[in-house]
Automatic annotation (TrEMBL):
This is Phosphopantetheine adenylyltransferase. ATP binds at residues 10-11, 18, 89-91, 99, 124-130. Reversibly transfers an adenylyl group from ATP to 4'-phosphopantetheine, yielding dephospho-CoA (dPCoA) and pyrophosphate. It comes from the Bacteria.
């Protein structure tokens, strides 16, 4: 039986920090599905379709990674795909409290699905999609924060 993990997030937009987790996760699991979820607490810049397309473009070189989107609960999605693991990236201690709450609820809903936390590379520990959007909004260079397709998409969004 192959090991299937899902890597969920809002990815608005995907950053090099996200890609760090995805690439490293792809080395550990036989199959990794990156899933775009809509976080109701966030007002996304990109639609779910745009985010999915950007992630596909940025991960096309990783053969065991696929990309999907869902409006369902994370645990329901994991069950539908028969995923054994949810892979979550952590940047700092501040991420841990939020992630612990979500993981505890997911465990209550289904204790068969494990959540694994992976620390992002130190060079990306400050990086968030929110920071990238804020910097891009004012025309600053984000080429060392996001892949080229994302940089182009940000420029297009903010030039309107």
């Amino acid at each position: 039986m192959s090991k299937l993990a899902i890597c969920p997030g809002s990815f608005d937009p995907i950053t090099y920090g996200h890609l760090d987790i995805i690439q490293r996760g792809a080395r550990i699991f036989d199959e990794l599905i990156v899933v775009v979820f809509n976080n109701q607490a966030k007002n996304p810049l990109f639609s779910a379709e745009e985010r999915t397309a950007l992630i596909k473009e940025c991960t096309k070189h990783i053969p065991n990674v696929s990309v999907d989107s869902s409006a369902d609960l994370l645990i329901n999605y994991a069950q539908q795909k028969e995923a054994q693991v949810v892979l979550r990236g952590l940047r700092a201690v501040s991420d841990f409290e939020y992630e612990m709450q979500i993981t505890s609820m997911n465990r209550k809903l289904d204790d068969e699905v494990e959540t694994l936390f992976m620390m992002t590379n130190n060079q990306y520990s400050f990086l968030s999609s929110s920071i990238v959007k804020e910097v891009a909004k004012y025309g600053a260079c984000v080429s060392d924060l996001v892949p080229k397709p994302v940089e182009k998409a940000l420029i297009a969004k903010f030039s309107k």
